Amino acid sequence: MLPKLRQLEYLNALVEHRSFVRAAEACFVTQSTLSAGIKELEELLGQPVIDRSIKKVTLTPFGQDVHKDGQAMLKQAGAIVEKAQILKDPLAGPLRLGIIPTIAPYALPGILPVFEELFPKMELHIHEDLTARLLESLHNGEIDAALMAFPYPVKNLQSAIIKKERFVAAIAKGQMMAQKTMKLNDLKNHKVLLLEDGHCLRDHALAACALSPKETWQTFRASSLPSLIEMVRHGYGITLLPDMAAESGLGNGLDLIPFEYPAPTRDIGLCWRPSGRIHAISDTVMEALSESLSTHEAIANRLKSA
Amino acid sequence: MLPKLRQLEYLNALVEHRSFVRAAEACFVTQSTLSAGIKELEELLGQPVIDRSIKKVTLTPFGQDVHKDGQAMLKQAGAIVEKAQILKDPLAGPLRLGIIPTIAPYALPGILPVFEELFPKMELHIHEDLTARLLESLHNGEIDAALMAFPYPVKNLQSAIIKKERFVAAIAKGQMMAQKTMKLNDLKNHKVLLLEDGHCLRDHALAACALSPKETWQTFRASSLPSLIEMVRHGYGITLLPDMAAESGLGNGLDLIPFEYPAPTRDIGLCWRPSGRIHAISDTVMEALSESLSTHEAIANRLKSA
DNA sequence: CAATTTCATCGATTTTTTCGATTGAAATTT
DNA sequence: AAATTTCAATCGAAAAAATCGATGAAATTG
C-alpha cells in the first residue's frame, strides 16, 4: 500500500507550522482529521514520523526522509495540474518571468501594461536576478522565461532576440568638451566605470567597446546602475548606459552622448525551456515583449518629463 | 485538488497493458473501477488523458506527460515505503546486488548459501553486468551494491576492498615446457588472449602484467571467460585467469601455472551509495561477502572433483 | 451475421474520510 | 498551588469516496 498524497500534505503542513492545530487549518481540515491522517501514515509505514518523546512537534530522522520525498512528490503533483490548466488556456494563469537588473526597472513600465492588455487572464510574476541565476531557475522550473541580454551561452534552452539595444556614453556635465557624438576611442581618455562582476552588462560593455578589464576603473564596485550613475554624476568617470536605462530618466543631469557608427550594442532577448510553460506561446509572448520594449520609449519620455 | 496516487497507478497500468480489463486485474480492481478512476482523473485535470477517437488504448500527448510524472511519483512513493521497511529490519527484504561477469558465476556458489544462512529474511536479487553499467545502476538506485574489481574510479560512491585475487596463467596442455611457475616476462613468448573491451578484467590484466594492448591477440573478441578458455584450450594462446575462476573448474584440462612473486592481482570489493539501502549494514554485508569468497575455495574444490 | 471482446455507465454497497465533541496531559497564568 | 489555556489523541456519527456487479453500446472476430 502506498502513502496518500493527502497524508504527505499533512506532514508538510506540520513541518511548516510546527503545530497540529495550525497545520490543520492551513489544510482546511480539523485538527482531529490531521491527527488521524498522520497516525494513518505512521501505521502504514510501520514507523513513527513525528517524535512524541519531546513536547515540540519534531520529525524523527525517518520522518524527515518522508517529508523530503513527500515534498518532491507534491511538487510534481502540482506540476501536473498546472500543466493541465495551462493546456486549457495557455494565456491564462501564472507566468513567472525572470528579468536581469539592468533591464527590469526600465522595461517593466512598458511590459506591465502591455501584458495586462494582451493577456488579461495572465498573472505575471517578476523575478529579478543576474543572468546566471535566472538560467539556473529556468532549469529548476522556478521561472518560465528569462528576459536577458545576449550573447550568453544557454545550453539546452531555447532563446530568441527581441531587439538590439544601443549603449550611450554618460558623463557628468561639463567634463567633456561639448560634442554631439563620440567614438569608441574617445573612451580611452576617461576612467570607464562599469558594474561589478556577475552583471552581464559589464561583459557586454567590455566586449562591445573592445575594452580590456584593465582599462576600467576598478576601485568602486557598483552593483546597480543607479549607484554607478551616482559615481558618474560626481565626476569619477564615464560609463556606458543601455538605451532603455538612459531614456528612463536615469541619465538626467548627465551628458548622454551617442556613439558614431558603429555604436556599441547588446541584444535583448528571451530564453525559455523548450518543454516549459512558454513553449506553446513563445511567439505570442515575444511579440508582446517586442511591443513592450518599443512602447517603452513613449512611456520613458513621459516619465522623464514628469 | 491533487490527482490521487491510485489514479496514477491506474494510468500506469493502462499504459503497460494497453487494455482496461487487463490493467484492472493488474491493479486488483474491476474494470469499472479503473474506468471510473481514469475518468475521475480526467475530470480533475479538465483534460482527457486517453485518446478516445481511436480504438486502441492510446494516451493523449498530455496524458503521456501525466503518465511520465506519475511514474516518477509512484517510484518515489514506493521508495518511501521501502525505506520504512528497511528501517524495521535492515537485514530483511530485498537487496539488489550487482556482480560483474568475471566474478558472478564463480562467487555465487559461495555467496548464496552464506547469505541464506546469515540473512535468512533477505531476498537477494543478482544483477550481472559490466562495471560501468553497474555503477550507472547504483546511481539510479536500480541496485543497492555492486561486487566488482578495483581499481576503478567510483565518484560519489563508497567502496571497500574485500580481498586480493591472484591471476594464474592458463594454457593448453603441452604447449609450454613443463614448469611449475612462470614469470611475467614469460608471457611475451605467447599470444595473450583477453576479454573484449568493457570488461574490467581486460584492463586489470593488462595493468597487472604491464602489458600494452598491442601485445595481446586481438583477432578474437571473447565476451565471456568460458569462450576465452575455449580458445585457449584449442591452442590459440595463453590467458590470465582470476583465481576464483580457475578454481571453479573452468581451467580443467588446461595447464594452470601460478606466477612467481610478484604475482599479478586484482582487488575484489564492494561499492554502494552512501545514502542507500546498504549504508546501515555495509560492515555486516562486507563480512558476509568476505566469508563467501573464502568458503568459495572449499566449494570450488567440491565442484571440481564432481 | 452471430458471438465475442472491449470500454462506458449506473445503482447499490462497502470503505474511507472528515467532523464535532470530549478527554487527558502539559504549559501558562493567576 | 489552583485555575486556565493549549495541545494532541480519541471516539462515534455523518458525509464522501471507492469499488463492485450488472448492463449497454460499439467494435472486432469467427
What does this 3D model show about the protein?
The structure is a homodimer of 306-residue chains. With 306 residues, chain A is an alpha/beta fold. In chain A, the strands form two sheets. In chain A, strands 3, 4, 5, 6, 7, 8, 9 and 10 form an eight-stranded mixed sheet that branches. A two-stranded antiparallel ribbon of chain A has the order 1-2. In chain A, strand 3, helix 5 and strand 4 form a beta-alpha-beta unit. Chain A is elongated and about 80 Å long. The interface between A and B is medium-sized, with 30 and 30 residues. Chain B binds a DNA duplex (30 and 30 nucleotides) through helix 3.
Per-chain topology:
2 copies of one chain form a homodimer.
Chain A: H1 5-17, H2 20-26, H3 31-45, E1 50-51, E2 58-59, H4 61-88, E3 93-99, H5 104-118, E4 122-128, H6 131-140, E5 145-150, E6 158-172, E7 192-193, H7 200-208, H8 225-233, E8 238-242, H9 243-250, E9 254-258, E10 265-272, H10 282-305
Parallel strand pairs in A: 3-4, 3-5, 7-8
Antiparallel strand pairs in A: 1-2, 5-10, 6-8, 6-9, 6-10
Helix pairs in contact in A: 1-2, 1-3, 1-4, 2-3, 5-10, 9-10
Chain B binds a DNA duplex (30 and 30 nucleotides) through helix 3.
User: What share of the residues of chain A does DSSP label as strand, in percent?
Assistant: 15-25%
End-to-end CA span of chain A: 66 Å
Give Rg of chain A in angstroms: 26 Å
Q: Mean pLDDT across all residues of chain A, rounded?
A: 87
Which stretches of chain A of 5+ consecutive residues score pLDDT under 50?
A: none
Structural class of chain A: alpha/beta
SS element count, helices of chain A? 10
Largest sheet of chain A: 8 strands, mixed
- Choose one word for the global shape of chain A: elongated
Q: Give the beta-strand count of chain A.
A: 10
Helix share, percent of chain A = 40-55%
The chain pair forming the largest interface, with residue counts per chain, is:
A-B, 30 and 30 residues
Which H/E pattern describes the elements of chain A? Answer: HHHEEHEHEHEEEHHEHEEH
Oligomer: homodimer
